[in-house]
Design brief:
89 residues, alpha+beta, single chain
Length: 89
Amino acid sequence: MTDLRILIYKEDDLFVGQCLEHDLCVQSKDLDEIRRLMAHQVEFYEHNGGLSSVPPAPTEYEDDWHKTTGDPMQIVLNGTGTATAKVAA
């Protein structure tokens, strides 16, 4: 699996993790839980036809990724690969 990028942002009282390469999205009140939930999403699709069946996220998320400042974080997705995450302000 190739590396993924995950844009994390706050929406009301939830953190939202949006993958950019594939339109996968998870929500949680716990920022650390985003990694686990995204890992489950990726693993599900890899075992059910592959991520190639999932289109990219809408371009607005790509734009937000480039506007987000701060250092990206490397996270491991439970043996399914790695992702670079940025937290939007």
